[in-house]
Structures are given as C-alpha cells and as structure tokens.
C-alpha cells in the first residue's frame, strides 16, 4: 500500500513539471516585432510629427532653433556628419529652411536650424532627409521635430483696456417752506397784513326795581354770616351731648 501512494505522488509531480515546461517553452520563446525603420544609402525619410505649429510649444535655450532628433540609430560603422543629409524644412507660409547634423548623444542624432523663421509663430508642414550614398546608417526608431526656436512659441499679445467709470455727485436743492396764516374766514397769505380791532362794549344802567320785592341792601351778607354761626353752634352742642357719658341707675 505504501508503495502505491509513493507511485501516485511521483506521477502527480511529473505531470506538473511537464505542464510547466510546456508553458515556459510557449511563452518564453515569444518574440516581438521591432519598431526600427530600415534604411539604405539614398533612402529619403520624412519627419513623423508633421504638420507642427510652433505656437504654445516648449523650447530649449541650449539648442535654440528648429531642433530635430533621430533616435535608435543602427549603423555598420562609426557615425558622423557624413552619414546624414540635410533636413529640408517647408513652412505653411511658403518659406524653406535647412537643418544640419550637429552631434550624437548615444544612439540619438541631433539636427538644428538657427537662421530661418526664428521669431514669430509658424507651422512646419513637412521636413525630409535623404541618406547619402556613403552612409553607414541601416535603421532608426523615431524621427521628430523636438522643439522650435524660443522666439516662436509665444502666443500673440492681447491688450486689455480697463473700462473707465465716471461718478457724478448728486445735486441737492433745498426749498424754504412757505408759511400761511389762517383766520376764521380762510387762509391768509403770509405777506398780507392783518389788523385787529378790539370790540367796544356798552353797559346800560339797570333801572331801579319798582315792584313788591324787597330792596337789596348791603346787610344781606351779615345776615347770612349770623345764620351760619347759629347752625355751627347747634351742631357742636348736639355733638357734645352725643358724647356725654351715661350714668347708670342703681
């Protein structure tokens, strides 16, 4: 029984190793197509990123001009200026320029133009180069316009005029009020003159009474005073009697 379990385990391990090896062989042997463009002497190639507007682009003051780069260069021997022809540049305004080889940095070749259309905004419509007959270059990866001159990347200047605001102070007019006097007969203008006349009173003498009534004399006031004293005295007497203590009878 033990031998049977060992045999089964070895079979499972063998199957796993077989599948793993087949997978590695399948994917490990996969190759990818190269992006290199093959060239021979006399081949004419075009810059890839055309048309190219200079407006709003970045620039490099160290390589200030129309700077072209060819990357991933493959060659059969040492590379120098004799391996490249001039780059012929055409602009949308009909003008033309030439960019020449300057140097190599690794597998990258640099070309530049520093004389034509260096200021203002331009569009490069096409740029091409033909490899000379003695060129050792057999292929490359990319061929682009890297950046334009620094004088061509700015946007047009826009001038903004701020609106002018004029403030007019308000004018205040004060009108003095007009006073009008009013009498019993209606309004009287303040400019009119009012005259006041005091009324005259006339008192007629009272004729003496000739009837049966008693004549009024100057002693009537004294009579009334005496009557008042009598009433006052009576009242005080009644008050005193009402407060007198009563004597109880035994």
Instruction: Give the H and E element order.
Output: HEEEEEEEEEEEEEH
Helix content: 10-25%
Residue runs with pLDDT of under 50 for 5 or more positions = 17-34, 190-197, 209-218
Report the mean per-residue pLDDT as an integer. Answer: 75
Major β-sheet annotation: 8 strands, antiparallel
- Number-wise, the strands total 13
β content, as a range?
15-25%
The DSSP helix count reads 2
N-C termini distance: 157 Å
Structural class assignment:
alpha+beta
What's the Cα radius of gyration? 67 Å
Shape field? rod-shaped
Give descriptors for this structure:
three-stranded antiparallel sheet; alpha+beta; eight-stranded antiparallel sheet; 250 residues
Structural features, described:
By secondary structure, the chain is α+β, with helices and mostly antiparallel strands. The chain has two helices and 13 strands. The strands form three sheets. Strands 2, 3, 4, 6, 7, 8, 9 and 11 form an eight-stranded antiparallel β-sheet that branches. The longest helix is centred in the N-terminal third of the chain and has 27 residues, at 2-28. The N and C termini lie far apart (157 Å). Mean pLDDT is 75; it is low at 17-34, 190-197 and 209-218.
């Amino acid at each position: 029984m033990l031998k049977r379990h060992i045999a089964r385990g070895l079979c499972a391990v063998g199957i796993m190793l077989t599948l793993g090896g087949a997978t590695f062989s399948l994917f490990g042997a996969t190759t990818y197509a190269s992006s290199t463009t093959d060239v021979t002497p006399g081949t004419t190639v075009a810059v890839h990123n055309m048309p190219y507007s200079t407006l709003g682009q970045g620039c490099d003051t160290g390589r200030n001009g129309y700077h072209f780069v060819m990357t991933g260069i493959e060659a059969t021997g040492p590379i120098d200026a004799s391996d490249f022809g001039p780059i012929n540049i055409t602009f949308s305004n009909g003008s033309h320029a030439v960019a020449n080889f300057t140097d190599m940095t690794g597998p990258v070749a640099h070309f530049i133009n520093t004389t034509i259309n260096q200021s203002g905004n331009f569009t490069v419509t096409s740029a091409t180069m033909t490899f000379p007959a003695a060129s050792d270059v057999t292929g490359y990866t990319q061929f682009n316009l890297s950046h334009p001159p620094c004088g061509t990347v700015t946007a047009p200047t826009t001038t903004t005029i701020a609106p002018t605001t004029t403030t007019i102070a308000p004018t205040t007019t004060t009108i003095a009020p007009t006073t009008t006097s009013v009498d019993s007969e209606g309004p009287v203008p303040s400019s009119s003159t009012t005259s006041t006349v005091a009324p005259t009173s006339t008192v007629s003498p009272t004729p003496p009474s000739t009837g049966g009534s008693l004549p009024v004399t100057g002693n009537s006031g004294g009579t009334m005073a005496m009557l008042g004293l009598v009433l006052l005295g009576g009242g005080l007497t009644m008050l005193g009697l009402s407060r007198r203590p009563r004597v109880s009878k035994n």
